[in-house]
């Protein structure tokens, strides 16, 4: 375990996509510089730690997944501590500090961390350090960095308190001095107005986040006219500051090139979430006109020969590759264009200083280089600061090196947010912006996350169309901007659009068609069931649906399913149904004009449509957005939701729509129930808790 029990603390992390693990590793790394040893484990490794007997402080880093669930690696732990037979003093001996990660774009922000925190408190555990809740929407580092900074003093005080309780004051001075000697504060240096080069010393820097400042009297600046900062250029005070940057992450991967003989792994081997199915795309329809701002496509998959099953409201995932041109471009920059088809063996580097180093699970032990870059690594991921720190070592130009140092430093935090996070800068963007940066292949494997399958809402009913699965999506566009030299399409939506082009334009002889039947194109999918976003179990219960744009997708499945049930069960009682739909232009992006058919046959009771960009000559202007239409029908909303205990479904964009809809519902509750806004918000929270106000939203 650890050499000195009194300087040890237990460090647990629970991660879904790797962020919590990376932060835990940063804490583990910094602990050494503070005279401490972190005993680090994934929360799922319950055979390697025991909170029931743990005497030392516990630090927990935990993310949130889905609509507010703890990550998969925390499920066993959460299930264990939620045992209702545990006494309220079960963890009375435990001192802990918790850092939760989440995204405020979603309703149940940091709920994974909050769930664990709340339950530990209920079981008698005590905080030795205040809980931190980091928001990926604005940048995790805004909370993570200061939280880690304050952790060391909190641990010091926890150790001192522990010593006092045990009556062992003799070693207090030793603990105190080892902690106070650790370099965790950067003292600003007064620099001259000349641009200085921050030289990384080979010794010492690797174990500390404090850089030695070396003043070098050389001119490294661009023209004096550059007064505005950019991705590649900084201005005072950042350009003249001493920098506090992360410790250099130890390398831990070794890549060995082999021959060109063999077979790549099957795509199903990359997925741990469930059974994958390779299914043909049998139909593709463009739902928007050519002059619409966004292009929406409907795709139909044939699942008749599989055991894939779903309910309306479920989602499923598409396994997609990185763009082939981007893969080729990256190979060229890495100087590996000739090696793309070579098999590589990926192993842990012997003698690495990285604790518990293992080959990433999403990287096959043996596959071709192209396979790894195409199917395994998220090339579009926003580079984390630890990756930028590693890229510094691969950069030869002094100006570029300094700017990369700034972008990963505390002093450059706002520049990192402004020029990297907000512009969705990816590795290729960085390599174009900093051409002297030539990273190694092992560095990419160490720092780029797993290429995630993309999730889509089902837009059909298996009861209405047996053996078919439909879904709708907009082709995502990333236009040229100051940090991106070329426009790009979304990883999955761009690939799907290209894949189904022969189905969309069957008469065009494109160079990409291989001469076969275009309908034989197949994609790999796996189920992602939604436990709550389903039709009411009782068909007599009324419900309202709000789905502007492609947010209407799951509601098409709802209505198809309801129509079939009405045909098959004429003696059943069915509750009224409302649909609020909105788009920009009636004649450009009204995705499902056949909604009127549901209205005519009685499946849909009320259809309210609004067009935000169409002009109107009416005396009273029609509602522009769905939230406006909802307000116009306030009494009906209150009746269905509050008096008749109906359901309210919202699907679509979180920031620009779902928040506006919830605000409208809060106002309606406030007026119709004659309560203040705070009380109305509590009522809406209760409706969420009761699973009668349901959201399927994205940012």
From TrEMBL:
GO biological process assignments: cobalamin metabolic process; folic acid metabolic process; homocysteine metabolic process; methionine biosynthetic process
A GO molecular function held by the record: FMN binding
Superkingdom per UniProt: Eukaryota
KW Amino-acid biosynthesis (keyword) present: yes
Subcellular location: Cytoplasm
Keyword Amino-acid biosynthesis: yes
Catalytic function, reaction form: 2 cob(II)alamin + A + 2 H2O + 2 H(+) = 2 aquacob(III)alamin + AH2
Domain FAD-binding FR-type, residue spans: 274-536
Record EC number: 1.16.1.8
Subunit (UniProt): Forms a multiprotein complex with MMACHC, MMADHC and MTR.
Cofactor(s) listed in the protein's UniProt record: FMN; FAD
Annotated CDD domains: methionine_synthase_red
Designated name of the protein: Methionine synthase reductase
Alphabetized UniProt keyword annotations: Amino-acid biosynthesis, Cytoplasm, FAD, Flavoprotein, FMN, Methionine biosynthesis, NADP, Oxidoreductase, Phosphoprotein, S-adenosyl-L-methionine
InterPro entries on file: CysJ-like_FAD-binding, FAD-bd_FR_type, Flavdoxin-like, Flavodoxin/NO_synth, Flavoprot_Pyr_Nucl_cyt_Rdtase, Flavoprotein-like_sf, FNR_nucleotide-bd, NADPH_Cyt_P450_Rdtase_alpha
Cross-referenced PANTHER family: METHIONINE SYNTHASE REDUCTASE, NITRIC OXIDE SYNTHASE-RELATED
Domain Flavodoxin-like: 9-152
GO cellular component: cytosol
Main location: cytoplasm
